[in-house]
Each structure stands twice: as C-alpha cells, then as structure tokens.
Amino acid sequence: MAAIIKHRLFWPAVILVVLLVTNVFFSGSFFKVEFRDGHLYGSVIDILRASAPLGLVALGMTLVIATGGIDLSVGAVVAIAGALACLRISGLDDQNSVTGVLLAVGLALLLSLALGVWNGFLVATVGIQPIIATLILMVAGRGLAQLITDGQIITINSSPYKMIGAGYWLGLPLCVIIAVGVAVVAGLIVRRSALGLLLESVGGNAEASRLAGIKSRWLILIVYVFAGLCAGIAGLMISSNVSSADGNNAGLLIELDAILAVVIGGTSLAGGRFSIAGTILGAVIIKTLDITIYTVGIPPEVTLLFKAVVVVVLCLAQAPKFREKFQRRRPSAPATQAPQQKVEVTA
Amino acid sequence: MGTALLSMSGISKQFPGVKALEGVDFRLYQGEIHALMGENGAGKSTLIKVLTGVYDIDEGEIALDGRPVRFAGPQQATEAGISTVYQEVNLCTNLSVAENIFIGREPTKFGRIQWGVMRRRATDLLQRLELDLDVTAQLSTYSLAVQQLVAIARAIDVDAKILVLDEPTSSLDAGEVAQLFRIMRQLKAQGIAIVFVSHFLDQIYEICDRMTILRNGRLVGEHLVADISQLQLVSLMIGKELALLERLEDAGKRSFDAAPAVAQAHDLGRSGAVEPFNLTIHQGEVVGLAGLLGSGRTELARLFFGADKADTGHLEIDGKPVTMHGPRAAMNHDIAYCSENRKTEGLVEELSVRENIILALQAARGWTRPLPRRRQDELVQKYIDALNINPKDPELPVRNLSGGNQQKVLLARWLITEPRLLILDEPTRGIDIGAKAEIQRLVVELSDGGMAVLFISAELEEVLRLSHRIGVLRDRRLVTQLENTDAVDLDRLTETIASGT
C-alpha cells in the first residue's frame, strides 16, 4: 500500500478517479459505452478522442522539458501543419484521392520536422534560451499559418483526410490509436536505448553531462524535432476533425495545456527525470476536467476559474514539499510517516 | 586577559554518517586575531558555520559577552555583532560598490532609497579603510581582491564585534594580502576580534595572535602563535592521519624516466586561465599539482581533458600530437577527469548511483548502443564493492549519499572506462577521513597497476604523500617541477609555493 501511495502517478490517478466519479454523479450514463455501426460511442471515448492531440503535443513537450528546455511553438506548428495539409488537399482535383491526401500529410509532417530542426538549431547550436528561441516560432508561426491559408479558413471535403481525426479502426477512434502508438514507440525507444538516461542527465546537470562526454547538442536537436513532429501530427488530427484549417485559432494555447499535462504527470520543469506515462495521464486529466465542467453544469463565466482551482490543487498534490508539510501538519499523523517524506526524493 | 568576548564550549555537531565536531571549545578575546587551524575536513568550516548561525548545534554552549546565546540563523548572528566574509565573495558583482555594501539595509526615507546618503556613507566607510574606490562603479570592474575588501567593509559596517574571515587570502596576490592585513590590524586596534582561516602558514604567523587547532572534529590545542613552531603546528594538524597513511609514504620515490609517456603538454596554455607550460606524465606515475587556490591547478588539468580549449601549444598522447576538441575526444584517448566540484560539474544528483556510474561509458557508446542492464548491474556492483560505496543500493539517488560516497561514485564512473590517464581534481575535499584514506590508497594501487594519475589537492600533505613528481603553480604559471625525493618536505613545498623557486 505504501508503495502505491509513494508512486509518482498516485495523486494524478486519484484526481482522475475523483473527476470521473463526479461525472457519474451528474450524469448517470457517463460510463455507458455503446457499440453502434461498428464504432464505440460514449463520454469516455469522447474524452480519449479529445485527449489524443493534446497527449501527442505533451509527449513531445515531455522530452523537451526533460532536457531543461521548453517549446512554446507547438501551437503554431499545429496550425501550420493543418494549414499546409488542407491547402494541398483543397488543391486536389479529387479530394478523396488517397495518394493525394498521403502526399499532403507527408508534406505537412516534413514541414513540422523542419520547424523542429529550426527550434533545435536555435537552442542547441546558437545557444538561445529555449523559451525565447521557441517564442520566435510561436509568434512567427501563426503568421506563417495565415500566409499558407491566405488569411482565410480553408474548408475541405476529403473522407481519407477526415479519417485521421474523426475516423475509426477496429471500433476505436483512429486518432487515439495513433496517439497511443506514437507514445508507445517513443517510450520504447527512449527507455530501451540509452536516450532516456542521456536526456535526463543533460536536463539534470548540463555541465556534468558535458564533462562525462555526452554530446548534448544532438540530443537537444532530436527532442525539438520530435516535439515538432508530434505537434504536426496533432495539427493534422485537429484540422481533420473539423475538415478545415484555421491559421488563427487551431491549437491556440495548446502549448500551455501541454506544459500543464507534463507537470501534472510529475516531470519537473527544471529538467531531468521524466515520465511519458505521467504526461499521457496528465493530458487525459485535463480533457476530463473540460468535460466535467460541462456535465456538472458550471456556468460559462466561471469555468476558467474552476479549471484554475483544480489545476492549483493538482500541482500542489504533485509537489513533494507541499505534501510533506501537509503530512506533518496533520495532528493524527503517526511518527511512522516520517520515513515516507524522506523517500519522496526518490520519486 | 579578562573574560572572553566569545566562548564556545563542548560544541558537538553531527551530520548523517559524520561527526563534524565533537566537544570543541573555542574562546575569542576582544581585539585579537585568532587563527582557526586544521586540515580540510577538520571541522573549521563547521565551527564557523555554528558561530555564524548557519548550523544549529547538537550539544554545547555559546556565550557572547558572558551571556548564553543560540542563533537561529545567520541574520541573528549578524545582529549580535558577528559578521562573516566567506572564501568565495558572495556579493552581487552586477551591482555598484555602494549597493553591495548596503544591500538589504539601504538607508530609506518614506520607503524611498536615499541614494545620496548611501553613496556618502559608502565612501566614508571605504575611506576609513583607506580604500579609494568609485562607489558608483559596478563591483565587477574591480579585482577579486578589492571585491574581497568591499565584502569586509560591508561586514564591519554592521557594528561588528567579531569578524570571521574564511580563507580570504586564497585568491589574493602578495600586495593584496598586505592591503588586507593592514585593514585587519586597523580593525584589531578598534577592538574587533577577528577569526582568521588560512591554509597559508606564513600568513598565520605574520598576522595572528593566538590559534585554535582542530583535527577530525576534535580540539587539539589552543596556543599563542609565538609559543609554537610551524613544524609543531603542522604535526598537530596532521596528527595520527600521518600514521594511518604511513604505508603510502614508501610507495613513492620511483623513477619514471624510462617509462613511456602517456601524455605530454608542449607549451600548452589558455589565456586568462593558465600560461603555456610543458608537462609530461608517464605510465604508472602520479604527478601532483600544488599551488594556492586560483593558481591555475584546475585550469591546467582541464586542458588535458579538453574541458576547456587550449589556445596555444599542443598535446601529445603516446608521442602523437592530438587536438582535444572536447571531453569526448579525451575519452577516446583513454583520459578521464574527475572534476573538482562534485555537485555542479560531476554528478547528476537526481539520477541513481547506477546511472551516474555508467554515464561516461554510456556516453562514449552513444545513445543507440545501450549498455545491457545485466552488464550495468555487474559493473556497478563490482565498483560498489571495490570502492566500498555506502549504502550499497545502486538504485538510490546519488544526492542521498554522503560527500565521500558521492566522490567514490564519481571515481567509479571514470574507472569503468578503464582510463590510462586519470585526472583527479580535489578528490578528497570535504569528505570524511575514512573515505579520504580509501581514495588515497586507491590512487597508489592504480598507479602501481600502470595508470598515470594527475592529482590535484589543496592539501599539500596529501600531494606529498601520493605524488612521484610535483608541479608547483603560482599565479597561473607552472613555476617548477620537483621530484618527490626525501629532500622534499612540507616546508620545502610551502616555500616553493610561496616564493616560486
């Protein structure tokens, strides 16, 4: 039992359960999942679908944050990727052509990679602070997206493209399968190779890592490229889901939700130890919270405030220092709890 | 001599695994300059931190002006009239001289800082110390020595009764030391009691009245400086440690002229760090580097590892000229570097012991070729046993280990890369005597096994004990190299460091 409580995903998991149970209170059929026309339907599925793009963006953000950096430009990359894909598809003679759509998707992802290389170049080679380096693309990227869409919202009618964000495969939403697939592959690569260790080392102590012979430049470049790619895929999902590209609003403020998901998942913004599973859990919590706000029927004017309160509680629950204090203050807390506080460091 | 201004009695302080102070007495009288002596790790800094309220004590009593006191923090100690100037200048170099002197206690009127008053008072204060500085200039425009003096000015302006100077001279040249001493004498005449810590024996004998000697956290003696010779002092400071390591004494004194050279520096240098030098390290040889802090010891070692780039000269490895592009290049030539500062340049504290140990080896293999977990566990277990790393749990975060064990983890990291040249920069600083002895023994064993070692330590005793040859640095220049024969002893070495010949 103590081992479960000590696990760093314990508190986020508790919050998720609390949110889900709250939903059941207000909407009895919350957990009901129907099987209709070969697809699964239900609130839980909706949450997962909504979590897919955020989870992807947060996944890329996790590795960037692990190196002690941050990527503010992911929202702009989301918009650019969607804009370029939609522009290419709208120019097709037959918008339902699978090859045409694949080409458009490939181009959009290639551009996302290139944007990641740009961020990585600024941070790793030029040596600009990550927050400033990616701020450049965060601002300029919106402009670039609008340039691509010519300031308009591009609407398309392409069923292959629609698959990415709204399609189903084996009864499951395709976007969830893609997101989980990318997360699993990334997790395997990071933990089976030495990449994870080296990233954590660079994020934990850059100078010590340099003197241990780690060439951090390449590692840092890789994580920004990966963050760009993840944001690109998320951008395709988002634009595909609504069959249009809006350079102005697609992925707006998603970088902040992604950073939040990473923090909720137990990865420190200071860099070092990271948890991919935690980040995915964090993304699901954020989207569950969004849905909870609707089911509970919180008036629209206070939704943001409500969200803020939950986020504050979450972040405090994740902070070892706060938990330590909380445990110590409880008058009934027996002395046996003392060793637990010490072990928080291990998490 | 009347009653003591400050008396500490039976002071004990324990850290996890280490008894830093054990029943130490310390007395300080008005208007005296009192030296606190002892090797590194003897408990000097702990005693100072107790005195200045940084640490609370486990046992003992402190009385100031005859009244018992107990400081909850540095602020309280300062209010009670105890001011400290630490070895590393802890001022804000990006602020002006005046701002630095008054930081945190700026003269204000209606909540607004009175800049004019502040500048005037700063100028007056500095003039009292016969320092002619532009108080509006940014502190970084002045030399380290002047910054040190500004720190002292700041310390005495808060109506200090006791001024603690923790190795203030370690980075000063002779002229600057003279300036510091003049100010110390002036303060002494004003009745301020000064606690002075220095590794430099000649300075102690020049300026101090009395001294308290610590060894391994215990009080060994309290003497008038005039009553005790330098030789007596050194033997009191080193004490039984000398006996403990006697075996090592005989290990040295071999000739290495016939042994193949592992690394040779030819006019290697870096401007602002260390002047061009020639140095050869042979297989199986321990070359010690001695010199004061800031004399360029670390800077010299870093050039061998490519941690900094040399801008003159070149390096030969096995007789072939090479260019050191960086640490990885050095590692490819089987060179390893245990950096001076474990926390900032050595360990990744949140990673586990295992991860820290395999880090360099893994870095050399690249991220695509992970070291198999079973091999990791084998290697890590082997070195945990061989170096006696405690606790033996390889999955513990390194930050939970004591200093000595952290140092061993860092050593293990480099030993598993099987280097031919091992550079050890202050490997025994701030660690307990047991771990220190183990590390020293290890150095002897490694060199017996044919490894070349470049050994840096601020403790001259240690350098003398372990090195076959000693390079002496002074003012960022390698001034001479001494074969460590019987003719070379602590006095000779100290003299060389002081005079440069």
Quick summary:
Chain B: It is found in: Cell membrane. The complex is a heterodimer of chains A (347) and B (501). Chain A is mostly helical.
What keyword list fits this structure?
A: 347 residues; mainly alpha; ABC transporter involved in vitamin B12 uptake, BtuC; two-stranded antiparallel ribbon; 16 helices; 6 strands; disordered C terminus; B: alpha/beta; Rossmann fold; 3 domains; 19 helices; ABC_transp_permease (chain A)
What count of domains describes the coordinates of chain B? 3
| Series of H and E elements of chain A | HHEEHHHHEHEEHHHHEHHHHH
Helix/strand class of chain A: mainly alpha
CATH class of the largest domain in chain B: Alpha Beta
Specify the overall morphology of chain B.
globular
* Residue fraction in strands of chain B: 25-35%
Kindly report how far apart the N and C termini of chain B lie: 42 Å
Rg on CA atoms of chain B, Å: 24 Å
| Outline of chain A | globular
Largest interface, chains and sizes: A-B, 24 and 34 residues
CATH A-level architecture of chain A? Orthogonal Bundle
CATH architecture classification name of the largest domain in chain B: 3-Layer(aba) Sandwich
GO molecular function (chain B): ATP binding; ATP hydrolysis activity
Protein name (chain B): Sugar ABC transporter ATP-binding protein
Domain ABC transporter (chain B): 6-241, 246-500
Membrane topology (chain B): Peripheral membrane protein
